[in-house]
Amino acid sequence: KNEVEQSPQNLTAQEGEFITINCSYSVGISALHWLQQHPGGGIVSLFMLSSGKKKHGRLIATINIQEKHSSLHITASHPRDSAVYICAVGGNYGGATNKLIFGTGTLLAVQP
Amino acid sequence: GAVVSQHPSWVICKSGTSVKIECRSLDFQATTMFWYRQFPKQSLMLMATSNEGSKATYEQGVEKDKFLINHASLTLSTLTVTSAHPEDSSFYICSARPRTGYAGANVLTFGAGSRLTVL
After folding, report:
1. Is B87 helix (H, G, I), strand (E, B) or coil?
2. Which DSSP symbol is given to B104?
């Protein structure tokens, strides 16, 4: 079982729909990251959070530390949101500080 | 905002040659940089943690003699794939964390990645 699990693996939505991507983890963390990877491969950090909720434009990220679960929401989705969304948890693993463990990603396709 | 430049963005080389990939923090000093590898349709895997002025820390299963990492300054880390073979073909990506005290010290910034194809 992976230490970071994401669901769904693939998601197709119509433009304007509200989208939710889930992330569950089984290890202790100092922070959880949501990343966006476009087809060319470049990665953009969307959020880093350790508690509560953060909002940036149409993106909202929440985390429940007790349940070891985080969600990324996209409101009013647009085709340009199409990308792979990756959840990663950070902590001190194997003696290494600030190491990230990545989920396998969610491939989102928003159709016009 | 923090910007990390990675070069080259793609490279094709013959088997047996060495390839160097550079990761530069353009507007901040990074005491720590991370190197990842991503195979098609798979997630990123941390290869090593690069600390300025000291030896890199490699993850289990990563050959330190094959993947040479040098972090000679606070703005530059390099990954050299030595004697590359087709199985080394992958997408390599770096990230950097600003040193403590910088406004974005907790933000991890990624380079655009380098796609290596070994023939």
Report:
1. helix
2. T
Which residues of chain B neighbour A41 with C-beta distances below 8 Å? 38, 91, 93, 112-113, 115
Q: Are B109 and B102 in contact (CB under 8 A)?
A: no
Nearest CA in chain B to A2: B43
H helix and E strand count, chain A: 0, 11
The size of the A-B interface in CB pairs under 8 A is 51
What is residue B26's DSSP assignment? S
Please give the backbone phi and psi of residue A80, each rounded to the nearest 5 degrees, phi first.
Answer: -70, -10
Residue B11 in tokens: 């490279």
> How do the pLDDT tens digits run along chain A, 112 residues long?
689 999 999 999 999 999 999 999 998 888 899 999 988 888 888 999 989 999 999 999 999 999 999 999 999 999 999 999 999 998 766 555 567 889 999 999 999 9
Instruction: Assess contact for B113 and B9: CB atoms under 8 A.
Output: yes
